[in-house]
Backbone:
């Protein structure tokens, strides 16, 4: 019996990360899903991540507790900063929005790297996207490449000359429509995912924030209705 290679998969419970988990599984990896309770203003995505990990049969799923509310600086971690609504695609493509959480992917990848070392895994998957990505600096290919270089300088395996750590970004060059199409091909249940920055008390998406608008656009371009609940 061939042993599957292990991979740590960052899983937020949204459309992109759930698709990334499905891709890791389809590529033959034993997926260890990692989610963060990082002080976000809602916990709907944590429940979504749990459902997605179960639905896609992740080997295990850990929810790590950190608190980025200590610093604030983002509409996702500070109640004093409003989540932008009803912006045009053109507006979304200009500048870095207030929903950017400072250094979030660096922090998340560092936890993933630590767990990968413990698991003796050489692969980390993250669902960053450089097209429909709302201007986040830590979703760009050059950032991922730099982090991968650092990861192989900072780990025991890297120093000992073992197989290098690889950061997989299967969605980085895809449009949201292409991501949705890939997910449908992989038979993902998108109804259990939560992408919204400002969901209702029962997890219903607002339909007006940047994340919702990009997601709805992706389904529309596939001539499909988004199965997730909206307010």
Residues:
């Amino acid at each position: 019996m061939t042993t599957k290679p292990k991979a740590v998969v960052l899983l937020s419970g949204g459309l992109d990360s759930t698709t990334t988990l499905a891709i890791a599984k389809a590529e033959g990896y034993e997926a260890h899903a990692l989610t963060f309770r990082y002080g976000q203003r809602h916990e709907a995505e944590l429940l979504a991540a749990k459902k997605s990990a179960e639905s896609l049969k992740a080997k295990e799923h850990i929810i790590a507790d950190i608190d980025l509310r200590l610093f604030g600086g983002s509409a996702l971690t500070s109640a004093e900063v409003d989540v932008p609504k009803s912006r045009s695609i053109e507006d979304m493509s200009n500048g870095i929005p207030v929903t950017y959480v400072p250094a979030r992917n660096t922090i998340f990848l560092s936890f993933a790297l630590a767990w990968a070392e413990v698991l003796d895994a050489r692969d980390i998957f993250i669902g960053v996207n450089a097209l429909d990505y709302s201007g986040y600096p830590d979703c760009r290919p050059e950032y991922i490449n730099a982090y991968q270089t650092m990861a192989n300088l900072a780990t025991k395996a890297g120093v000992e000359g073992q197989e290098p750590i690889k950061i997989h970004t299967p969605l980085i060059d895809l449009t949201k429509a292409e991501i949705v199409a890939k997910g449908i091909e992989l038979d993902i249940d998108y109804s259990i995912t939560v992408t919204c920055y400002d969901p209702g008390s029962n997890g219903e998406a607002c339909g007006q924030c940047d994340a919702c608008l990009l997601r709805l656009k992706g389904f529309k371009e596939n001539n499909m209705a988004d199965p997730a609940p909206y307010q």
Remarks:
- The chain has eight helices and five strands.
- The mean pLDDT is 94.
- The first strand starts at residue 6 and ends at 10.
- Residues 8 and 124 are 5 Å apart (CA to CA).
